[in-house]
Amino acid sequence: MAYLVNPVAFSLGPIDVHWYGIILGTAALVGLWLAVMEGKRFGISPDFFMDLLLIGVPSAIIGARIYYVAFKWDAYKNDLLEIFQIWHGGIAIYGALIGAIIAGYIYTKRKGYGFWRIVDVCAPSLIAGQMIGRWGNFVNQEAHGGPVSESFLRNTLHLPSWITDQMYIEGQFYHPTFLYESLWNLLGLLLLFWLRRRPFLRAGELFFSYFIWYSIGRFFIEGLRTDSLAFTAPSGLAAFIDALWSPMRIVFEPGMMDYGNVRISQLLALLIIVAAIVLIVVRRKKGWASERYADPIVSTKSPAAAGADAGEGI
């Protein structure tokens, strides 16, 4: 007998508490804990990261919604109130990252910290949050890939029944792309843990490494999905992206798209990978990355920094 997870964890009177919200809340708390633990090595107060979370989460939600609506404007332009009804679905992870990064930049500058130093500390938190958060898609039976056979899930991937059964949606089994991305992010988290103890790592480079790793996985996994935001691009660009994805065809078939010929997340992933690599190289050559990850992190607004500035004027 198939067992399906009820999206509602429990009810408090008329209020339903969904597993999706619980999972996202857990992801945020785990990310906060990781940042606080690493921040202690540099003498940064846990309150700093708690405030950063309180500012970053709503900014991420707003950014995720704006990003999605911008690329699906035809679906919203005649019903503007629907834009604010995010419980109907429609958010994008890259938009969430943009919103969180903008808010984080403003907050860290106001606190007197270097932006690259703080995002380095938070990079493992970001990928851990995404690793956990993808299980919300599992519960909601969303963000899956294209159709597959039951035997592929049970006998080829050797998935347990509680995952396989949940991938049976409206009479068809589907790729558990949530699982692929979650496992990829787990490997990325371990990689970041290893990298941040390497003496060669400069300020900002752990953050760039996070984006490179995540975007590589997202590029290939996105090609399996059936709900991608897309657009119609020149045939040469579409062929180029398809050629890069083609090694996946050894095992997988790409997911069908309802419109367009290029998935926006795939194109953005490629641009991010290139941009991150270029920034690492340029920042080193120009001497803009003189600080190392292991160097002390000091706020220009801390009492110690203020005292040092006063001493320089004596």
Automatic annotation (TrEMBL):
Keyword Iron belongs to the record: no
Catalytic class of the enzyme: transferase
Biological pathway: Protein modification; lipoprotein biosynthesis (diacylglyceryl transfer)
Entry EC no(s): 2.5.1.145
GO molecular function, one term: phosphatidylglycerol-prolipoprotein diacylglyceryl transferase activity
The UniProt record lists the keyword Transmembrane: yes
Cellular component aspect of the GO annotation: plasma membrane
Pfam families: LGT
Sorted UniProt keywords: Cell membrane, Lipoprotein, Membrane, Transferase, Transmembrane, Transmembrane helix
Taxonomic superkingdom: Bacteria
Topology class, membrane: Multi-pass membrane protein
GO biological process: lipoprotein biosynthetic process
InterPro entries: Lgt (IPR001640)
Coiled-coil stretches noted in the UniProt entry, renumbered to this chain: none
Cellular compartments annotated: Cell membrane
Transmembrane segments: 17-36, 48-71, 83-107, 177-195, 201-221, 228-252, 264-282
Binding site for a 1,2-diacyl-sn-glycero-3-phospho-(1'-sn-glycerol): R134
Function: Catalyzes the transfer of the diacylglyceryl group from phosphatidylglycerol to the sulfhydryl group of the N-terminal cysteine of a prolipoprotein, the first step in the formation of mature lipoproteins.
Family of this protein: Belongs to the Lgt family.
The name this protein goes by in its record: Phosphatidylglycerol--prolipoprotein diacylglyceryl transferase
Primary gene name: lgt
